Amino acid sequence: DFGKIGVREHILQKERKLFPHQLEQIDSRFKSIKDKLYIHILESYIEKLMLKNEYPNKETLEKYKQEVYKVSQELDTFFQVILDLNEPSVINSDFFDKVSEIATTQVMIGNQGIPILSQEEIEILSIKRGSLSAQERIEIESHVTHSYNFLVQIPWTSELKNIPEIVYGHHERLDGSGYPRKLVAKNIPVQAKMMAIADVFDALVAQDRPYKKAIPYERALHILDDEVKMGKLDADLFKLFVEAKVWNLTRKTDTEYNKVA
Length: 261
What we know:
The protein is mostly helical. Helix content is 60%, strand content 3%.
């Protein structure tokens, strides 16, 4: 995986769908909309005083206040929904309905309708699973090709000459759903099939990934088993992985990691 040095750091370490500066922009925009509403009320008040010599009555002022309060509450609710949508979890249809509601919402200030989210922000918050957009995922997946392009330059001995091809295939899946070449079972080196199982397990239980929490070993094995049943990982190799309790090799590393932490 050292090909990840060819992936931009902020993409590699992305924890949520929106980058912090993007979330700050939305927060600032919502506050700005609230301010513009208050300013609009003041302008209307001054216009009646200056041009019409007319004082707004109590009912009119209360109407303005309620309008601002209603919009402010709605924006606060929307922002909380955005915080929920920003998490890299799988989102259901209810969340998509909320995204659609926010996407079509405009705040009317006078005769002007102000969209509360940009099209780019809507697309990012609509990511179905994880934190990466389609383009960001392509960039992350490119790490395999970076690794291969580096390794293939090395004059390997005959015993090690297949290493670049093995590395190139460790994110492939038996059913052709992997990357980067969409290889099927017969075209994936057995060593790459072994690496695929170990790599998925490591990704699930690792404690040093900023974009996800580690899960228990047993849960990781269940997830791997599901991948086997879906025809993505090799059943015989997974059986060997379980029977040999290969994951015990990582427990020592975890213990040492926790002591250092």
